[in-house]
Amino acid sequence: MGRGTRIGRKESSGREESTERVPRLRWLPAAIIVAALVLSFFTHGGLNTFPLLVAAPVAAAPLLSLRGTITTGVVANLVGLGLVFLKREPSVDELVPFSSLVVLTVVAAFLNVLLTRDRRELKTSREVAAVLQRAVLPDLPDRVGRLAVATRYEVAHKEAAIGGDLFAIHETPHGIRMLIADVRGKGVEAVRTVNALLGSFHEASDHRPDLPDVVRQLEGRMQAGIRHASGAEAESFATAVVAELPPDYSVLRVANRGHEAPLLVHEGKALLLEPTTPALPLGLGLLDADDEIPVDLFDLPVGATLVLYTDGINEARDADGVFFDPVPALSRHFPPDPDAVLDAVLSAVSRHTGGNLQDDAALFAVTLDDAVPGADRQRPAPETGRPEHSA
Questions:
Q1: Could you give the CA distance from residue 181 to residue 164 in angstroms, rounded to a whole number?
Q2: What is the DSSP letter of 124?
Q3: What is the distance between the alpha carbons of residues 317 and 379, in angstroms, rounded to a whole number?
Q4: Taking burial as the number of CB atoms within 10 A of a residue's CB, which of 77, 317, 338, 350 is the most buried?
Q5: φ and ψ at 183, to 5 degrees?
């Protein structure tokens, strides 16, 4: 794949942070046994530390290998015997607790085998989902006209099904048109809708001279799919942002259909491009030829980066349930490079979530370059949205 598209990159970014915590947790069973020894020493055997010893192999089951789990149980038994010998001569009464510890070690080993198998199956499912996602989403070029292009697709840890996030960019006689969308649901139904929207977007981009007509065609394609579907697929919809830069790159037109507001990163600031008029997602409102499609106009200065993303980013939560805000992460100076901007977003999300992304996330960024070195450098900073009313 080209420089711009990195699917499954979580394997080499946030997932590394997630696995960094595992080695620390692997010491938990040993720490429990040590705690039992310390408590027994300081209380001179007056405190029953057997419950701690019992907990050690149970804690080892999800954290260690099968050999490590069994070893933990054996060590816990030996420590328990040693503590008994230090206090008194072992009696028949000790048979019950130590037999229980042996049984719990066997149970912990069985659980370890089951967990290992489930993890292996989930890992395989994630890999299959990533391959399918790679097959569905197009490989975008590194450059389109004066735009440098970068994309990312991050697969969530807990997900093992292909998601409904998609992005596309298409150069046409009417300008450069971009799409990012998030289809409701996952699996085969989402794949069908993703393919339909991608095909419809490329067709409409070539043949529809106005951006509102592109949106109408996407809406019509969603409605057609819903009419011929059943079950959950019949209730499908998709949030989307359709954007356009005319051939002279003079203005950025954005039609937002219930999607996360794009970000414009320029000169150390990140600005949310909020829609002036909220609109329903695709599939939730049939559009007639006379219906108005809200389109907002924004300036895209040379060197600025437009960032579009799905809700896997702004709805990523930390341990306290706080949502991630991409604006602070991008409110600093960046080189005119969309890859650097997306890397900064993903690094910030990974820190915020501890490396555990809760939902798939698609990101798409473009940076406007000079047509001629030094040209257009005096263009104004980005303005807030101003509506372009289109029928």
A1: 8
A2: H
A3: 37
A4: 338
A5: -85, 135
Sequence letter at residue 206 = D
Task: Give the DSSP per-residue string, 100-118.
Answer: HHHHHHHHHHHHHHHHHHH
Where does residue 22 rank: exposed (0-12), middle (13-18), buried (19+ CB within 10 A)? exposed
Q: Residue 282 and residue 279: Cα distance in Å, rounded?
A: 9
Determine the Cα–Cα distance for residues 256 and 367; give it in Å rounded to an integer.
Answer: 20
The pLDDT, as a whole number, for residue 209 is: 92
**CATH 3.60.40.10 intervals, the chain:** 139-390
pLDDT of residue 12: 38
pLDDT tens profile 125-148: 555 555 565 656 767 899 999 999
Stretches in the chain below the pLDDT threshold 50: 1-21, 160, 372-382, 390-391
Distance between first and last Cα of the chain:
40
Which residues face 7 on adjacent strands? Answer: 153
Position 102 scores a pLDDT of: 84
pLDDT value at position 21?
46
SS3 at position 96: helix
What pLDDT is attached to residue 205?
93
Level-2 CATH architecture, domain 139-390: 4-Layer Sandwich (3.60)
The confidence score (pLDDT) of residue 383 equals 52
Half-sphere exposure of 20 (CA within 13 A, CB side): 11
pLDDT at 352: 92
Pair 166, 179: CB distance under 8 Å: yes
Rounded to whole angstroms, the Cα distance separating 366 from 300 reads 10
**Confidence at residue 78, expressed as pLDDT on a 0 to 100 scale:** 86
Residue 209 CB coordination number (10 Å): 10
Burial category of 316 from C-beta neighbours within 10 Å (exposed 0-12, middle 13-18, buried 19 and up): buried
Predicted local confidence at residue 135, as pLDDT = 58
Tell me, what's the pLDDT at 269? Answer: 94
Beta bridge partners of 256: 241
What CA–CA distance (Å, rounded) separates 294 from 150?
A: 27
List, in order, residues 6 or more apart from 227 with CB less than 8 Å away. Answer: none
Angle at 146 between CA 249 and CA 195, to 5 degrees: 90
Using CA atoms, how far residue 178 sits from 13, 20, 119, 125, 149, in Å, is 27, 37, 38, 31, 11
